[in-house]
Design goal:
The complex is a heterodimer. Chain A is mainly α. Chain A has a single domain (44-111, 137-281), classed as MetI-like fold (Orthogonal Bundle), CATH 1.10.3720.10. Chain A has helices spanning 2-28, 45-50, 54-87, 92-100, 107-118, 124-131, 146-171, 175-183, 188-216, 220-225, 231-234, 239-249, 253-281. Chain A is globular. The relative contact order of chain A is 0.14. Chain B is mainly alpha-helical. Chain B has a domain at 63-232: Orthogonal Bundle (MetI-like fold), CATH 1.10.3720. Chain B has 14 helices and no strands. Chain B has helices spanning 7-32, 36-39, 54-62, 65-96, 102-112, 121-130, 137-141, 149-159, 164-171, 176-187, 189-205, 208-213, 222-232, 237-272. The chains are: A mainly alpha, B mainly alpha. The interface between A and B is large, with 100 and 93 residues.
Amino acid sequence: MVALAFLLPLLAGLGVFYFYAFVKNIYYSFTNLGSFGKATFTGLENYLRLFSDPKFYRSLGNTLRYVVIAVPAVVVLSTLNAYLLSRLRILSGVFRTLLFLPAVTMPAAIGILWRWLFNYKFGLINALLGKFGIEPVAWLSDPAVSLYSVSIVLVWALLATQTVIILTGLQNIPAMYEEAALIDGANRRQIFLKITLPLLSPTLFFVITITTINVFQVFDFIFLMLRPATLAIQYASSLVYYFYDRAFIAYEKGYGVAVSMILFLIILLVTVIQFIFQKKWVHYS
Amino acid sequence: MKKDKHTPVIMILLIIASAMTLLPYVWMVLTSLKTYEEAIRIPPKILPEKFQWINYQIIWNKFPFATLYLNTFFVVIATVAGNIVVAAMAAYAFARLKFFGRDLLFIAILGLLMIPGQIFLVPHYQIINSWGLSNTRIALVLPGIFRVFGVFFLRQAFLTIPREMDEAALVDGANHLQIFVKVLIPLISSSIVSLGILIALWTWTELMWPLIINRSLDKLTLSAGLAFLIGEHTTYYEQVMAGGVISSLPVIILFFFFQRYIIEGIAATGVKG
């Protein structure tokens, strides 16, 4: 009874906003829910349409591209940053603060500053490239480039948090292991590869999992940096952007929800696969 | 470990990494202080002839920053407070009370963390709409109160407190509510602060939910409202940059004061994940 009293607020909220909402979401995916709350059951229609919708396939393909580009980049760069920070005994706190700044900046502000850097005519990036004789790039309007521009910003923004998490993981490794290896004559690279990385693997596993889930849900920078209804945004559209576009721009909520169900199943599958494979490389002490 | 002969190399690499992080901000600030002609000069000129503080005044008058900041302030405070109360109560039940199906329920709630939030957006929209709450500030707070992350975070904090503390209080005749409020909450106060800051940060950066549920600019948080600034006023780059500074600088300053808690909170998500 006492337990119920303590749990009641949470359970009431979860009941409405998660469990009921989840069931509702599955239901909506089998309906033609539009802009005015009225939903008629249409069976598998949304899913059948999905599987013959080139825009859906493109968004799915793009999402996988974002994952393949951004996840390794974030993991490698944040590990490198964290490792450098952990090796430094002076000013390490100052650098850590600076590297963390993107994590406390709202996506729209990040969008504003990167749109300006990427500006075709007046942007700093094209001006710098021009100094090396490189032709200006239409970062935000060329459909062949826009996905990569978004990826750059995504990596830049996601690095901050993961660097701090990995740094903590590094600091939790007892110094005695590395000192013992140093005395035994191991060099820095051997220590890093043979001792630090295996001991860090639980943290890395967490970072990879979280980053993968985050990147699968990329939306903010696509929405904030690219012009709506252009080829550039279509060729950079992710599953979540396509979901938003269908559900809240085109007001085909039922169809949008079907897209979100696919996203849910993919993330579930990827998470399960990661948990199965972790046994092969993650060492828990 | 004595002297590290690699220190200069490490230092140079970190300066490069920090420069990559900082440069976009510096360029935003510099542009915000230029005239329009200076901002679009080709090739770009680094420093403005004279600092154009007027850009800040112009964009402040053009765009309802004050309203957006007030809304954000309300939404962040309400979400943080609500979330902490709900999460702390549930965490206490999971850490200290015995009841049927406790572990199973806990795992079920853990599973929620794996579900992408977009799954809930359309149903949330329908629910909030049917309650007549769309286009209100309450709508921005409601689903966010029930984020489950805090339940794990605070359960973990409760588990580090020895049970003898509760038992001593029980012997003295205290009930669960008294133990919870008077004994345990003060003992985990630093975890509560970390959680509060994490939730504030998440609410602060949230974009899609406010954009969907509240259509009028004066009912949005800054994070979502700023998206309108991008859409509408893109001609005068120096003014948009001033808007970018207005919306990012205050939190960056706050961050410098509270960074110990923020970093600890972020780090704890990794350790406990």
